[in-house]
Every structure is written in C-alpha cells, then in structure tokens.
Amino acid sequence: MSTDETHHFRRMIAVWIVLAVVIDLVFYFAVGPHMPPGDMTSSASGQQRDFNILLLAALPVTLAVWVYWAYALIVWRGSRAGATEPEGGPKARGHLGIQIGWIATTTVIVLGLFVFGVIELIVPAGAGGGEGPVAIWTPTSHDVLPVQVIGQQWEFTYRYPTFGGFESRQLMLPTDTTIEFHVTSLDVIHDFWAYQLGVKADANPSTDNIAYTTTRQLGSFTVRCDELCGLWHGAMYNYGRVVPKSQFFAWAQGTERQNAANTKNLPPFSYTYVPDANGANGGYYPDNKDQYSKVETYGAKDPGN
Amino acid sequence: MAGLLAVAVGLVVFTVMAFLRSSPPTVDFASGHQPGAPVDLTLQTVGSIGFGIHPTWVSYLTKSPSGRWVHTTLWDVPAHTRINVTVDQYDGGSPLRNQQFGQVVGTIGSRATLNGKSFSVINANNGNGVAHTFAIPTLGISVPLYANNGNDNLCAVAPCTFKSPHNIVKFSFMSPGPGQYPWQCFLPCGLGYLYGNGGPMQTVGYMDGFLKVVA
Predict the structure, then answer these.
(1) Which domains does chain B have, with CATH numbers?
(2) Quick check: B137 and A154 CB within 8 A?
(3) Cβ atoms < 10 Å from Cβ of A304
(4) Residues B26-32: what's their mean pLDDT?
(5) Any idea what the Cα angle at residue A81 is, between residues A80 and A87, rounded to 5°?
(6) Is the bond into B57 cis (omega within 30 degrees of 0)?
(7) Using the 8-state DSSP alphabet, how is residue A163 labeled?
(8) Domains of chain A (ranges plus CATH)?
(9) Cβ contacts (< 8 Å) between A266 and chain B: which residues?
(10) Rounded Cα gap, residues B123 and B102, in angstroms
(11) Would you call B97 and A265 a contact, using CB atoms and an 8 Å cutoff?
(12) Rounded Cα distance, B145 and A298, in Å
C-alpha cells in the first residue's frame, strides 16, 4: 500500500469510527427502546434487546460501505482537480494484511452473530418460542400459570386448568406472573403468535408445544395465527390483555362460574386432544350408535351414554 | 404458431381470472333500510344442497327480502342495527369438534331460542348433537344449531320446506361499524373430506360467508 493509499485509508477509518459511534449511540438511546415487540414480557424485552444488539453490530458494517462509497464519490471523482486515479487491477491484489483483516473481521462478525443467535434462542427463559412437549428451558419460579391455547379453524380458544378447566375465547393474563402456554390444535397446523408478548409457538394436532413468558406490563396484545391454515386464516386473530392480578382472578373466577354449564360438557383437561376427544369424529356424521372408546374420551364417562 | 400460443395463454388467463372473480351473489338488506328498524335475516341449513357443481355439499341458504331462497352466504346489512336471525335447520348432526362452541355467545342477552325455547348451551354429545354453528369470530358471536335426528327422512335438496324435519333457531345481535366480517360454521361438516374440514367448510357460499356491513 502506497503512502497516499494509507492516507486515504486512515481518513476513511477515522470518519467511519466517528460516524459509527454517533449512529450507534443515537440508535441505542433514541430508537432502541421503541424496537418491536416492546417490553411487555420477559421474552418480548429479550427479543427487543436481541434486535438492538444485532442492529448495533449491523449499523457500523452498513456505514462502512456508505463511507467508502461517499469518500470515493467525493475524493476520487473524475472532475476534481488533481485527483489521482486510484490503483486497481493487479496492483490492488495480494495485500496480505488486507486479506487477513477482511477474512478475520467478517469471520468474527458472522460467527459472533451465529453464536449469539443460537444462545439467545433458548437460554433467556426459552425466548418465548415453542419448546416442544418437553421444554428445554423451564422456569425456576413456582408461581406459574398454565394456559392452554387451542387452535382450530379459525379461532384460538384458551383453557385455564387452574380454574376448573374452563375454556374461553378471551386470553386474559395476570401481570408479574410466569405463564406456561400449552399450545395445541384440533385440526390442522396453526401458529400461536402473541406479538407484543414475544411468544410464538406452532399449534400442531396431538402435540403439546410449551412456551414460557413472564408478564411485566399491563396492556393489550394481538394474537395472530402465523401458519397458513385455510380459508379464514387471515381472520384468525384476536386480542388479549395483561391485567392486574386482582382483576385477573376476578375475571377467571367469574368466567369459571359463567361457563360452568358448558365446562362440564368439555372433555377432561388434557395437554392434547385427538379430534374424537373433542367430539368431532373426523367430521363424519355419526349414526349415534357408535360407542366412544376410552382413548377418545381419555377415560371419561362416555358422553353418549 | 405464435398466434396460437397467444390465444392459448389468453384463454388460460381468462379462465383463471373468471374462476378467481367468481362469487356467490350478495343479498342486500341495507338498501332502503329505515334507520332504527331491525333487519330480519332468515337462513336455512341443509345437509346437501342438491344442485349445482357440488350437489352433495352441505350449505347455508339465505332468504332475500323478496322472500326468495338464494344460495349464498354474503349479505349487505346496515351498520349499528339490530339483526334478527332465524335459522331453519334441516340437517342431521354430530358432536362438535370443540364443545366450547356449544355455548351461545355474542348475541343479545347471550341467548338464543330453539323452537321457541330459550337456551344458552347445547351439549353436542347428547341427543341429536349439533348440525352446524353460526359464528362470526371477529365479533365474538357463536350460536350452535341443534340437529335433527339423522335417522329421519331429512331434506336433501334445497330449498327445504317445513314439510321436512327441522329446528328453528332464533337470535339477535347488533351489527358493528362498516366493514367485512367473515362468518363460518365451526362444526367439521365437510362430509368426505379429511377431518371434515375441507370442501364446503372452506368455500364461501356454503359454510363460510361475509357479513358486509355498510354505512
């Protein structure tokens, strides 16, 4: 590298460092706190932090490209008096320092992001993702509220085993509580995506997909199905709320009483339901003569007798 | 050769577009509506429509303001208006996929009437079971429709009349602001399709439709 090239290189690096520090600071303090999905829950704030870290790493890389582009446009433009043609072609190749620097830097960035992403997928309280029927991460808190999420074409319903197993179309959660979602489906594959909660778990038939989060803030959140599941997939959404504990218990106990007449008709609470256990034996009209098997009712009394 | 290819491509595009743009008719309950007056929406459910390209499919039908039965599930209704729904239910039944939908919700008073008798829950595991549900999930409305005895001589060609075994379910709800609200049946009644969820369960004009609320 010639003296002139070293001069240009140092100037570009200096400009880049100053701008990178400024843009990272501006992003971190001005944009970072508003990054999705917010900080309503532990998993949401973890995802927000991850997005911020990834962007803090990505912004200087993007900026490096822009600084080089702008520098070349300004300093090496053809109309500039006395501008020297930068060396290219064979002379630009074979610089060991640049080659090692380039490979080392990009390797560190890519591997660093890979390791960071893998760790963040599971280490911080499950990250709000579905962990399958045997959760990899489990909470240490004993104050855990189980909530079953049941997907069916085309609505999510929610069952609360702590309160007599009532089922509701409303998803209400208490604040400052670790929630243990058990996500399943009665028909096709759905995906439970509670956006502001930072929770996203596939709803598969005959599968109990467990996801954890801990509520931190009051407010409403959106639940969407995120797996193309048929005609009204686009309309398969509803809204949930995180409310104070006292309000939640009042709602849960009230709904338990209000739904009691129907709760006794539901199949016993189970982490999964085969279609027959919930009544629809494959969608074919029964002749009202077939007996329900014990598998179909999980050992409960034959509802037909 | 190029001309023939162009014609062929044009025919394919025309056919696909014609298919995609095809839609059941919309029954208009909004035009000429007097503000404050309720809208009477009368429907019937039948185990097999008996005509058209899917004669064996289960379906809803709608009675137009002129009293004619129309094979459609699309309705224009005025906003913020009481909708009085009457369903003449002619189909047999089964248990529900999810008994949660045996509960009446979202209607005025959270109740409906079955043959004149008020109810709020139907246990689909007992009796004749449930034939279908009328549900508008985005409005929180769901009403189970009690079935007829499957061993009876049920109507198999629509429109059905009261000469066939039937149940009459009535309920009311308030229409929301303008918009399109999908409605559906929650009982997997697509006979012959995997888990009963295909065919008419996935087709507008049969077991799915739009409540189109106009200002």
Answers:
(1) 26-214 (2.60.40.420)
(2) yes
(3) 16
(4) 93
(5) 70
(6) no
(7) G
(8) 3-75+98-123 (no CATH), 144-275 (2.60.40.420)
(9) 99-100
(10) 6
(11) no
(12) 27
The ipTM (two decimal places) reads 0.87
> Chain B contact for A256, CB < 8 A?
no
Edge-to-edge order in the sheet of strand B208-214: B26-28, B74-78, B208-214, B179-184, B130-136, B141-146
pLDDT tens for each residue of B49-107 = 999 989 999 999 999 999 999 999 999 999 999 999 999 999 988 888 888 999 999 99
**How is residue B121 written in tokens?**
């829950």
pTM score of the predicted model: 0.84
Interchain CB distance below 8 Å, A286 and B94: yes
Collect all residues of chain A within an 8 Å Cβ-Cβ radius of residue B203: 231
CA separation, residue A225 to residues A150, A194, A212, A234, B179 (Å) = 11, 9, 18, 8, 21
Q: Is B180 on the interface with A (CB under 8 A)?
A: no
Which positions in chain B touch A283 (Cβ < 8 Å)? 94, 97, 188-191, 193, 195-197
| CB contact burial B151-184 (16+ within 10 A = b; e otherwise) | eeebbbebbbeeebbbbbbbbbbebeeeeebbbb
Torsion sign over Cα B106, B108, B143, B125: positive
Verify cis geometry, omega within 30 degrees of 0, for the bond prior to A161: no
From residue B141, alpha-carbon distances to A199, A285, B101, B133, B173 in Å are 27, 25, 10, 10, 8
B148: three-class secondary structure by DSSP? strand
